[in-house]
Amino acid sequence: MPAEGGLAEADYDLINGLCGVAAHLTMAAQYSAGAATLLERVMQRLTDWTCQPSPGGLWTPAHRVLGKDHGLHPELRSGYLNLGVAHGIAGPLSLACLVQLTGRADLDLRPLITSLAECLCASIVLSNEGLDVPYHVLPSGVHRPERPTRTAWCYGNPGAARALQLAARACARPDWEETAVAILHAALGRDTGSRGIPSPNFCHGKAGLIHLLHRFTRDASRSDPALIEHLNRELDELLDMHDPSAPYGFREVDLQGRAQDNPGFLEGAAGVAAVLAAFGSDEPMMWERAVVTA
């Protein structure tokens, strides 16, 4: 991959790319000097990319946009910067914060964290649904679709809010946590139909939102009764989605509203079970590092 960046999102993102590899290295680094060295190299490369202006760095230039996106998302044809946790800069931001907070690498990652956190904050828009972290930053002059981002882990305000909260802790920047609280409240104030999370799953469903609220409220610098109330309500609604007749207890709901039986982690019942199990642990569970929430 080029030192100046200009990448397809799958080159660096959490799900398919270098960020996901590094998330696992953070666990191995405490046991292996080789893993620790490799983690430092990955974090240095992410730092180098972040310093590059568009269309370099973590921007996806026009020639790296996937063919399917040309048809499904024509606004991306000229290139974009992905803002999500799963496929965009909120993933490397969360990762860098966790590495900085745990001391897993002999690097000062605060410049990287600051650059990504400020970019994320600067990208927040005021939509007809309130403050919103869009799916993408687009080149000047490209029309952005008028739709709120889903209220999820993979994209949208909740995942971005957790990333900014971690950044606030890593860099002693309480203003970032204030921004995180504001965008989280904005998302939770939307009606159910505007949230775009009909499924119980972790990636883009209720379980992921609940997990983020769980971690956010536990780590908050001050108690927020409204967020705790939202957490309890969302948890009750998730438990109501349990189906004893389903093979795995919870049924995935696809974008067409069709129920499916999926045992998987990101888009199935295993992720729901993991989130529920985390309520019984005072410390973050190992799987949480894979999704860079703790």
From TrEMBL:
Residues involved in Zn(2+) binding: C154, C203, H204
Pfam families registered for this protein in UniProt: LANC_like
Native organism taxonomy: Bacteria, Bacillati, Actinomycetota, Actinomycetes, Streptosporangiales
Molecular function GO labels: metal ion binding
Protein's UniProt name: Lanthionine synthetase C family protein
Parts forming coiled coils: none
Keywords assigned by UniProt, alphabetized: Metal-binding, Zinc
InterPro entries hit by this protein: LANC-like (IPR007822)
Entry-linked SMART domains: LANC_like
Gene Ontology biological process terms, A to Z: peptide modification
Highest taxon of source: Bacteria
